[in-house]
Amino acid sequence: MLLAASHRPHIRQAPSVTNVHMNIMLALLPALVLGVMHYGWQALVTVATGVASAIISEMMVQKLFRRPVTIHDGSAALTGLLLAMLLPADAPYWLIMVGSFCAIFLGKQVFGGLGNNPFNAVLVGWAIIRLSWGNYLHFDYLFQGDAVSVLHYPLDLLKKGDLTAVGALKPLDLALGRQAGGVGASAGLALALGGLYLILRRILSWHIPVAFIAGMSLSATVLFMHDPTRYASPLFHLLTGSALMGAFFLATDYSSSPANPWAKIFYGAGCGVLVIVLRTWSNYPDGVAYAILLMNILVPYLDKIHRRPITVSMVRI
Amino acid sequence: MGVSVVYVLRVYPVVLFENRESWGMLNQQNTTVSDRLPADIAETFRQHGAVIPRDVDAVIISALDQSPESTIVQNSFVKRKDLVLAGITAIKRMVDPSVLIFAIPRGLKHVISRSDECAASIVVLNPDYPNGVPEVLAKRCALAGKKCAYIDTNRLADLMESFLSDQPVSKMHLSVGGTGIETRIVAIDVGSTVGAVLSDLEIRVEAGDKVLLGGVMRGESCTCLDEIIPANTECLFVQKAKQVVHFAMHSCLNCGKCIEVCPAQLQVSLISKYAEFSLFSMCRDLTPQVCVQCGLCGVVCIAGRPVSQLVQLAVQNIDSLADEAKTPSCNGGKTCPKNHPCC
Predict the structure, then answer these.
(1) Helix runs in A133-242, H state only
(2) Please, what is the angle between helix B153-165 and helix B72-79, to 10°?
(3) A199 Cα distance to chain centroid
C-alpha cells in the first residue's frame, strides 16, 4: 500500500494567494461604493475597464511568454482595480487600457510575474500614463445638475497657493469622499476601514500603514507649525490625493516592500516624508506615487535591517 | 483564512484520559535516588542509549510537548511525577551543571506542590508550539549561546523506572491520533511495528494517507507499515489523504511572514530564494545551519512554497561546499579549479 511521504511540516495554515487578493479587493469595496455614489456610473465603467483590461493583458502576456496563465489568482484584477481607483472618473478608455497593460507587462510580467516585481506594478502603470498623457488626468469634477459647479482637486488648490480655499474644505467631507480625486482614492475613511480589516485579518502588517501616516503627519506638522499660511494641515494632507490609498494599499504591496518589521517602519516613514516633500516642493500636486516608487528602490538595502540569528547548541540526553 | 498560527497550534495542557495499560510499574515504590551512586545511574542511562553530557552549561528537563497534538510528555509529568523528580535529582548528581531548569507548561503549574523537592529551578512557560522544541525552549529560558542538554519527562521517567526496577525499558508510551481520530495515550512494547499498533487500535490506513512518526510539525513520514517504531518516538499520527498538504514552487511573494514566525530569527525568505536557484555560496552569511527545523515557515507561507525544505537544502549544500574545499586535490588552493579562497 502506497503511503504519502514528505519532509516536515505536514500542515499548512495560510491563506492562498487567491484568498489574499480577494480579501484586498473586498477591503477596497467600501471606498469604491462611495466613489460610485459620488461620481456616478461612469466611475463604475472606469473601474470595470481597468479590471478587464488588466486581466486580458495578463492572459495575453503570459500566453506570449509561454508561461502558465495565472489570472485565477486575482493579482491582475487587483492591479487593474487599484489603477482605475487612482484615476478620475472621466478618464478616457484608451488611457485606462494602456495604463493597465503597462502595469501588468512592464510592472510585473517583465520581472518574472507575481512576487518578483521590485516596483509596485500599479504605480509603474500610473507613472507611465501620468508622464505621457498627464493632461487627461485632471481631477476637477464638473457637477451637472440643477446648477453647474466645479469641484476643484484640493491638491491643485494647494499647489496654486490658494490656502483659503484649502482651509474651507471640511475634513468630514474629505473623509467621506465628497471631493474631487481618484474614483476610489477620495474616500479616506472607507480606505482606512478597509485597511484596518486587512490588518486584523493579518494579511497586512501594521508597520507600513502606521509608519506612512506617522511620517506624513510629522513632516506636515513641522511645516504647518512653521507657517500655517503657506502649508496645509496634516489632516488635509492625509485626506486628500491618494495618501491613504498609498498607506494601506500601494506601499504595502508584498513584493515591492521590505519583509523585516523594522525595515517596514523605515520604509513607511520614508514614503510618508517623501510624499510631503514632493507635494510641497515638486511640480506635481500629489507625490504619493513617486514617493512610493522612490522608496521601492531602497527596499533591498532596508531589508538588511534585521535581527541577528540565534544560535543554540543543544544535545539530547 | 488568515488565521493566526498560534491559535490553532495551541497545546491545551489538560491531562487526557488513560486507557489499557497502567502508568509505570512503580507507582507506590521508593523513588529515592540520593543514596545511589551516580555512576550506577549513568550506566543505566548509557545502556538505553542516553548520552550523559559532559561540559554543558545548562540542562533543561522539559514537561512541554514538542508537537502540538501530542500530550505524552505532559501526561508523563503528571502521572509519573515522583519518577521525574527523582530523575532531576539523578541528573544533578551525574552532571552537576551550573544551570538546571525544569520547564513546566502554564496549565500544569499546580502539579508541583510545596512539599515536593525539586533539584532544578522551575520555569513556567506557555506551551504553544514551538516553545516545546528544545532549541526554542533554551531561547525562552534565556540560554541562547550556551551549551545545553535536553531531556523530556517521558524519557526521563522511562529511564528512572528502568534504573529503580533494575529492568530494561520494555514498554514505551505513545500519543496516537489522526485526522478525525481522538488522541489516545497507549503503552506499547518496544519494538512494535507501526501497522501492529494501528490495527490494535482499529485505526484504518488507506492508500495515499500519511503516517507520521513524531507529530504533525516535526514528524517523519513512515514509508512502510512494517517499520518498527523508533525508540524516542512520542506520537503517531495518521493523516488522511485529503488533509495531506502539497507544496508548489511558486515565486516568493516577500511578504515576510516566515521571517516573523522563525524562532531562530533567520532571513528565511532570502535563504529559500537562494536555495531555489542553487546560489548556496550566497547563503553562507545568512547562517541557515542555525535552523531548528520547527517547520513554521512552511506552515505560514502564502505562496505554498516548501520553505522548510529549501532551508534544509541550503544547509546540506553549504556543508558539501566546505567538504569540497578540503579535498587533497586542491593542493592548498594553488591548483584549485574553482579558485576557492579557502585554504
Answers:
(1) 154-160, 163-168, 171-175, 188-200, 207-226, 234-239
(2) 40
(3) 15
Give which of B339, B340, B254, B264 is closest to B301, Cα–Cα. Answer: B254
Residue in B295, B315, B324 with CA at minimum distance from that of residue B132: B295
Q: What is the mean pLDDT of residues A148-155?
A: 79
Which triple of cell numbers denotes residue B243?
488533509
A112 lies within 8 A of chain B by CB? yes
Predicted TM-score (pTM) of the model is 0.88
Q: Which residue has the cell 514498554?
A: B171
pLDDT at B320 over 80: no
3-state secondary structure of A185: coil
* pLDDT, tens only, B33-65: 777 888 888 888 888 888 888 888 899 999 999
- Using CA atoms, how far residue A192 sits from A204, A209, A216, in Å, is 13, 9, 15
pLDDT for position B14: 41
Given this model, what pLDDT does residue B13 score?
Answer: 42
Chain A residues with CB-CB distance to B101 below 8 A: none
Of B254, B270, B281, B282, the closest CA to residue B311 belongs to B270
**Chain centroid offset of residue A189 CA:** 15
Environment class of residue B330 by beta-carbon count within 10 Å: exposed (0-12), middle (13-18) or buried (19+)?
middle
SS (H, E, C) chain B: CCCCHHHHCCCCCCCCCCCCCCCCCCCCCCCCCCCCCHHHHHHHHHHCCCCCCCCCCEEEEECCCCCCCCCHHHHHHHHCHHHHHHHHHHHHHHHCCCEEEEEEEHHHHHHCCCCCCCCCEEEEECCCCCCCCHHHHHHHCCCCCCEEEEEEHHHHHHHHHHHHHCCCCCEEEEEEEECCEEEEEEEEECCCEHHHHHHHCCCCCCCCCEEEECCCCCCEECCCCCCECCCCCCEEEEECHHHCCCCCCCCCCCCCHHHHHCCCCCCHHHHHHHHHCCCHHHHHHHCHHHCCCCCHHHHHCCCCCCHHHHHHHHHHHHHHHHHHHCCHHHHHHCCCCCCCCCC
Cα nearest neighbour of A115 on chain B: B253
Q: At A257, which amino acid appears?
A: S
Taking CA–CA distances from B61, the nearest residue in chain A reads A317
Q: Contacts of residue B298 in chain A, CB cutoff 8 Å?
A: 8-9, 12
Check whether B190 has a pLDDT greater than 80. Answer: yes
CA distance A183 to A180: 9
**Which candidate in A8, A19, A306, A307 is best for mutational testing of the B interface (most B CBs within 10 A)?**
A8
Nearest CA of chain A to the CA of B74: how many Å? 18
Q: How far apart are CA A122 and CA B180, in angstroms?
A: 45
Would you call B94 an interface residue with chain A, using a CB distance cutoff of 8 Å? no
Integer Cα distance of B273 and B330 in angstroms: 30
Contact A312 B139 (CB under 8 A): yes
> What grid cell was written down for A12?
499548512
Task: Name residues whose C-beta falls within 8 Å of residue A219's C-beta, 6 or more positions apart in sequence.
Answer: A272, A273, A276, A277
